[in-house]
């Protein structure tokens, strides 16, 4: 791939090599991680030249509960840390926070 290729071209190259969940969204997101922290989520139209060398690039299927969330639900980015919040590691993830209803 050339530096002028888009994220969409990267995804198109990956699709034949991965198996998506049959009951999933079939929608992929591409994001960059540096030192255990989510740096940027890329749009399919972004050029791959916008990805900086020290970043690790990940592509994942967007979960159904995130894709179909309501306006009362929020998506937050989460990171793993050890002992101190500044000591991040592993791959960050997103979490859907749902409305909590009281059981009275």
What does this structure look like?
The protein is mainly β and 104 residues long. It has one domain (7-97). The chain is built from two helices and five strands, in the order H-E-E-E-H-E-E. The chain has helices at 7-14, 64-67, and strands spanning 28-34, 37-42, 56-61, 74-82, 84-97. The strands form two sheets. The chain has a three-stranded antiparallel β-sheet with strand order 2-1-3, with no helix packed on it. Strands 4-5 form a two-stranded antiparallel sheet. A hairpin with a 1-residue loop joins strand 4 and strand 5 (84-97). The longest helix is centred in the N-terminal third of the chain and has 8 residues, at 7-14. The chain is globular and about 60 Å long. The relative contact order is 0.21. The model has no long low-confidence stretch (mean pLDDT 90).
* Cα distance spanning the termini: 58 Å
H/I helix tally:
2
What value does the Rg take, in angstroms? 16 Å
The biggest beta sheet reads: 3 strands, antiparallel
Uncertain residue segments: none
Biggest β-sheet: strands ordered side by side in the sheet: 2-1-3
Mean pLDDT, as a whole number?
A: 90
**Global morphology:** globular
Task: Please outline what is shown here.
12% of the residues lie in helices and 40% in strands. It has helices at 7-14, 64-67; strands at residues 28-34, 37-42, 56-61, 74-82, 84-97.
What's the SSE blueprint?
Blueprint (H helix, E strand, L loop, with lengths): L6 H8 L13 E7 L2 E6 L13 E6 L2 H4 L6 E9 L1 E14 L7
Antiparallel strand pairs: 1-2, 1-3, 4-5
């Amino acid at each position: 791939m050339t530096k002028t290729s888009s994220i969409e071209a990267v995804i198109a190259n990956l699709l034949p090599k991965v198996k998506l969940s049959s009951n999933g969204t079939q929608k992929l997101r591409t994001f960059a991680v540096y030192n255990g922290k989510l740096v940027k989520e890329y749009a399919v139209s972004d050029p791959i030249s916008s990805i900086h060398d020290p970043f690790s690039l990940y592509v994942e299927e967007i979960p159904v509960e995130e894709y179909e969330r309501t306006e009362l639900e929020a998506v937050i980015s989460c990171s793993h840390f050890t002992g101190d919040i500044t000591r991040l590691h592993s791959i960050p993830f997103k979490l859907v926070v749902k409305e909590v209803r009281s059981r009275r």
